[in-house]
Amino acid sequence: MLDTKHMWLALAVLAAIVFAIDWSRRQPSGPAGEPVAYITVVEDGRPATRGIGRKDCLALPDRVWAATDQGVECIAYLTPESGVSGGAAIIYFEGDVADQTPETAAQMVAGYRRIAGQAQERFGLPLIVIGRPGLMGSSGFHLLGGRRDEGEILNEAVDAVKRRFGLNRLILAGQSGGARVIAQLLVLGRTDIACAGMGSGAYGIPQTVSGKTRTNVFGDPGERYLVPLRMVDRVVPSPERRLFVIGDPLDKRAAFQEQSEWANALIARGHHAKLLDATGSGPEHHGLSTVALYVAGMCASGKSDAEIAAFVELQRTTPRAQ
């Protein structure tokens, strides 16, 4: 057991390490002081981390460069093989993935390309999957989810994708950490979101494994995390936008109560939002990615709230093989 003096010394060292990591990510370290993002590559059959600047990032296929006051990232995305046209698209954000080897990233890309084709056939809209930092070939570290820099970086990435494909109407879908990203985009003031399906999201202050609140070294989560429930007043009113918060009351990873709080907070401020009770897949009842995609697509297709709720209810009550 550490005494008080040594405990504070250990905390100070930890704070210095965290500061150094943040500093190294934000400071220019490329040629001529160019800001650099860090990506995982395969060298001699093993994963390695390498720096990449804006020019080299944009030279890669399906990449956009996102820069904010918080730092820079080279963000990967994928589109259906038929391309993107028409001014509107479904944009999807994935949740946390523990195993992010280059092989896993390649498998994710292949799976999403198949889903993108199916979504376009069903809903008549292209599906663009944007990789969160550290996922699907994007630079960065996605397991630091909920942080302010992730939300702001992805907000810039969405703008870059919009410009590249001439989009003006966004339909968003997300699972787990991806649902939280959508909520962060809302509180950052986006006004181009027509529909959103948020599945199994966490919208409050991130918790540790032991259930304690994550904070910075000074005990304030606000500087480090972009917390939707704390910033709901920043969601810009939009009479044509429909938001669907989807969750499973049995979810062991993201509390349904918090999802209910998020939906009710939106409703209380006059936003068109609905809370939908669904059945999450897996032993933790957490998987709602397909439901979130379908809900967003149905909304974009003009289906009514009642029709969307009926679809989710059918999904919830239909027995499935375990």
Q: Secondary structure elements and their pairing?
A:
Layout: H1 4-26, E1 37-43, E2 46-52, H2 54-59, E3 63-68, E4 71-78, E5 88-93, H3 102-123, E6 127-130, H4 148-165, E7 169-175, H5 177-187, E8 193-199, E9 242-247, H6 256-268, E10 273-277, H7 289-300, H8 305-317
Parallel strand pairs: 5-6, 5-7, 7-8, 8-9, 9-10
Antiparallel strand pairs: 1-2, 3-4, 4-6
Helix pairs in contact: 7-8
Instruction: Bin the helical content.
Output: 25-40%
Number of domains: 1
Which runs of at least 5 residues are low in confidence (pLDDT < 50)?
A: 4-28, 214-218
**DSSP helix count?**
8
Based on the coordinates given, report the CATH architecture. 3-Layer(aba) Sandwich
Order of helices and strands: HEEHEEEHEHEHEEHEHH
Which strand-content bin applies to the residues? 15-25%
Structural class by sheet pairing and helices: alpha/beta
**Shape assignment:** globular
CATH topology name? Rossmann fold
How many angstroms does the end-to-end distance come to?
46 Å
CATH superfamily: Alpha/Beta hydrolase fold, catalytic domain
Mean pLDDT over the residues: 84
* Rg (CA only): 20 Å
- Strand order of the biggest β-sheet: 3-4-6-5-7-8-9-10
CATH class, please? Alpha Beta
For the sheet with most strands, the description reads: 8 strands, mixed
- Number of DSSP strands? 10
